[in-house]
Design goal:
It is built from 11 helices and 35 strands. With about 600 residues, the protein is an alpha+beta fold. The protein has a domain of about 325 residues: YVTN repeat-like/Quinoprotein amine dehydrogenase (Methylamine Dehydrogenase, Chain H, 7 Propeller). The strands form 10 sheets. Strands 32-33-34-7-35 form a 5-stranded antiparallel beta sheet. The protein has a 4-stranded antiparallel beta sheet with strand order 8-9-10-11, with no helix packed on it. A 4-stranded antiparallel beta sheet has the order 12-13-14-15, with no helix packed on it. The radius of gyration is 30 Å and the shape is globular. It comes from Apiospora aurea.
Amino acid sequence: MLASNDGTPAPNGTSNHTNGKSYQRATTSANGMQKSALATNGASKPRMPDTYFGHDREEVTRILIQALSDMGYHTAAESVGRDSGFELESPTVSSFRTAVLDGAWGNAEDLLLGATAPAERTSQAGNGLVLAQGADRNMMRFWIRQQKFLELLEQQKTSQALMVLRTELTPLNQDQAKLHFLSSLVMCDSPDDIKLKAEWDGAYGRSREILLSELSRCISPSVMLPEHRLAVLLHQVKHNQINMCLYHSNARSPSLYADHLCDRRRFPTENIIDIDDHQGEVWQVVFSHDGTKLASCGSEKTVIIWDVPSFKILHTLGEREHRAGVGNVAFSWDDSMIVTCCQDKHARLWDLKTGGLLLDVSPFEEPVSSCVWAPDNRSFLTGSLDKSRSLCQWDLDGEKIFDWANNHRVEDLSLSPDGRWLVAMDDRNHIHVYNFMTRLWEYEIELHCRLTSISISKDSRHLLVNLQKDQAQLFDLVSREPVQYYSGHTGGEYMIRSALGGAAESFVLSGSEDGSINIWHKASAQIVEKLSGHHPRCNSVSWSPTDPCLFASCGDDGKVKIWSNAEGQRIHLEALHQSQESSGAESNGWHGEQPMGAE
């Protein structure tokens, strides 16, 4: 019912310390009298500075105590507390923690009601809970009582649960929709049914820890440290170092021992393979989710599936079925199937193990322009220039699941990996954003310029939009605002695709009307490389999801080009050699260059 944490043991679940105030440690002298630990042989020991390299010493020490407890070094944590004189938590915080974890809901509320907001804090409030700015005390009480209600239902104490709902939850006037949902749980047949419908794991699962985690976010961090604070700070350090690395090409997490910097020579700037098996323009290239396949399609009516990293042809799809060019393809999430979108007004589903046609979806009066897979891998969505069926969801038998019944054409689609955002690009200058879970329209963005492609980041937060006016923009899907702009490539009258990629998706990659391939650093928008790609036009680019030093491009010259570095060239040649040995073939139809450095 509440947001879950990262699955690691939470310090809010176990603590042997008390947090929020400092004390001066006392020791026992030889004559039985107590003396300050700061006194040694009658002389005053120099006072420790208040800061540690400019950081507040108490904050640093408490974070270290928490981190040591997180890692299981409880004796060390206690030792640091004794030696430093700083406590991790005050007795009030410890009591509140214990009350929540033990299910003592009355005690938990009593401690919470004694809390004060920062503006109300007085010198007498030092032992109480101090709420974070903007925290809602009644909402916190609602969460506590909701847990109490669910646990009573789980124990099948229905009458007591109803009493909590009517006399404790309802008077708080918080979330009416949630109240209606909670009341519906009374009709559940069993505790397991309650857990399933409420997405709640019960009193003996982690639900109390999750509740405590949610409550702790509403308490001032100076009183109750946010969970895993040191780990969060270290993640931020690594993220910032990656953002500052112009040629980030290492998928491994940076070391904490030294500042992070990638070698420019590892960056994929070398055209290691030219593939010219297509007989016409190539409009799109895209890697499979596991990075072991590459699909390309275009004007010649066929879709070619390549093995990676040998880049031998696995399948040629649609030689008989497609009656016009193919503008878009989409791999299923398990990479066992692929949907092809054709200008002949059909969408087709193919088996990638056999290369056979599984399904033909053809109720369209205009070309099918785009397709994406639902997160469940059991259905897919099509975008079409046909206004009567511009955005539809289909099951694997070709039955329509849902029709958004829009009155605008769709030229491109993208669906976030978390299944929340469905974004459709029309044939003019609008982006239409839907909540895929509820199937409801959320909002619209007008860019006053024709759009050429859209794609959503792996973290489901950002939308990359390519524009005809020689610019790409990165939007925050939550705030609905642009966060970065990229320029240097050229647009045109046709579809030019861009993509996010590289290690930690640190780069924006785009084709261009002038045939070049442009790579920008995502965070800074600095141009990293401008490569001579295709002639006259580079239509599409795709970065391998598993290899940060490998991407593909295609263009009107009928070629698919593979880009990597010296190591990528070596891996490809080894894979090709092994493939040829196993099949007895001498060539796969591609024209590669000599290994870099070879004569």
